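Input record (one chain):
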Amino acid sequence: MAFLDLASGVSLNIPQTPRALPRVMTLPGIISNCNLIGDGDSDGSSSVCHGRIIIVANMLPLHAQRDIETAKWRFILDEDSLLLQMKDGFPPETDVIYVGSLKVEIEACEQDAIAQRLMEDFKCLPTFLPRDIQEKFYHGFCKQQLWPLFHYMLPMFPNHGDRFDRNLWQAYVSANYIFSHKIMEIVNFENDFIWVHDYHLLVLPTMLRKLYNRVKLGFFLHSPFPSSEIYRTLPVRDEILRGLLNCDLIGFHTFDYARHFLSCCSRMLGLDYESKRGHIGLEYAGRTVYIKILPVGIHLGRLKTVLNLPSTHDKIKEIRKQFMGRKLILGVDDMDIFKGISLKLLAFERLLRQQRALRGKMVLVQIVNPARSSGKDVQEAKEETYSTARRINEIYGSRDYEPVVLIDRPVARYEKTAYYSVAECCIVNAVRDGMNLVPYKYIVCRQGSSHMDEATGIKMDSPPTSMLVVSEFVGCSPSLSGAIRVNPWDFDSVAETMNMAISMSDSEKQLRHEKHYRYVSSHDVAYWAGSFLQDLKRACQDHCDKLCWELGFGLSFRVLSLSPSFRKLHIDHVVSAYKRTNMRAIFLDYDGTLVPQSSTVGSPSCEVITILNALCNDPKNTVFIVSGRGRSSLNDWLAPCEKLGIAAEHGYFIRWDKTSDWESLAADLEWKEIVGPIMKLYTEATDGSYMEYKESALVWQHRDADPDFGSCQSKELLDHLENVLANEPAVVQRGQYIVEVKPQGVTKGLVAQKVLTLMVKNGKPPDFVMCIGDDRSDEDMFENILSSASSLSLAAAPEIFSCTVGPKPSKAKYYVDDAADVVRLLQRLATYSRPEPRA
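The corresponding structure, as predicted from the sequence alone:
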């Protein structure tokens, strides 16, 4: 119950779920506190089909109805459900199981039997959320808090949107928790892929990743994802972000939604992303979380079947007769505050007012689907829609002409299809919508079919045409390049666009239609599902190659994924090797290794100085500080350590001990005259950034700048500098919050190589090499000490300890937790160091 405790501060009393279905799964790697191991079925794994797909959504793709006479429940598949249509995109032999809730409430005494029946007949596993949790979860947190926020609506006032309620959040986490344990009843984590859908289940991935670290997990968000300025107002923003990041693949309809998510990850969690061979990837605790951008499509076969129904043909004839001689514009929208129905009507009113010639010749048919949620806002939107339609009809209508036809009743599929087929223009005027497939359906219906054309009397040689007016705030807008995009708030522009759409030449309408139909027919729901599954398999292909380490508690849980050979450095192991060796080389980074990154002073503690002196005074030791800092700072801070070697500015300057002079690489630094003015330009243009001047390098820092703008500017600066320095002896590198330019051939790795080579040359071949660092620049040292040890023709292979600070992906073989661990390690080594005897 750790997730629930964290969500609310109080443990929620969740009723015991009904008896589980017969277990058919293996549970390798499941943590013991889940109480799910040991079902006694040793043959369970053999009965599971390999590579099943478990689709998890709030609602199952089923219709349920109780028979009045027998009082028994009847279930049929919902053929219009996206979840069901997705199967067309999977290989034919794929076994698909659905997990979700039913749209009806089932009595507790019936739940076991119905669960068994649904699993056997439909491969559907119902969750049966308790009534109080279902109410607070779906109608509370999902519909009153997440859904408005994701559609850019903030509860600025108590009477306009519900403010954050911790009890509703607790119910949301509880519902996700129940889903996770339902999935446990049927999943084989080793082989199955789990695909979670939409904002109802945003923290479910964290729970599944906790249950099995290598779960193969994808998520697709069907709603918009808001900009960081909106999203950051959510009190549980980090928990939801981390929930999504516990997936292997996250899908969005548009790049805008993905960009907003990535921006939130950058601003709130400090994560950066990059494009990897065309795929966007986020590095999160050693795992790559991939981002998929692909809008969902429609099921062409289903729609074409309806097109060819006799009832559809009859309705088409009826509509043509009803609106003969008039141009029909169609709108099909849910009744809610974001669909912009009233804005559409206001724009239509403006058109009739401005264009007298269109009165009596143009009709707007608005089909209103039932509202998916209730509340004051929805009721106000409905009242405004009706009053606006009534006003337009009273002012511009007549006895035989009704400008606005408002259809606010259940409309059969064949009737909608008929209206799509007849309408000369379709308008989607939403102020915010995740995807909206109405334009896609309209395009397919306008394409028609030979059977429909013949039945309805359309000339077979007349090419199909269509016109779309689409809000630029709708998810389908980017994929419909032939549509006329509008700002729904600009009534004059929308009115002008509607007039342009119906008055456009048939040849232009035909070209636009052909372009749209090619896209819609090739990017259907099967293409979308198949493409997502293919990318999910690719994202999971290296799961077995990594070791998993669990970090964090509750909804902050995450998995650190590391190389199998990577492990924590045990001090006793190092001390043992240290004691039995006679010639040792020790390389230490400075910031983040000897001194914590959080230190504002920069200088080492007295304890560190004492330890370094103890190590340096042992004649068996060669100790070097290898840092990116300037030599003056290091010289001042480490002055008490007379026998300590120092490599400053990544090795551009080297001093073997305090009595020796600084050596520097013979490098041409004239390029600094080119780089300086460019970096200064970017500094002036980027608030919060600054330049750092080194003797051998120039660094542009943007740690204190806006995360998004700083990252964007650093990429631009990198590209700019690489172009102007193409023929210069300099290297441009982009690190964490920095862009650095330094001479070619200057790396920490070369310092290690130079020291080890000199030791061999002086007849002191090392039999112990230890290298500790914490950042990217230290990776060169880790790699180089391994290659140098094998290339220096040593009589015996030395004991090598390459160690990074903090568990993270690295070329090092070991890690320690923090700088304090480094000091403890060095302290132990210092106690076994013997100072050189005095003469």
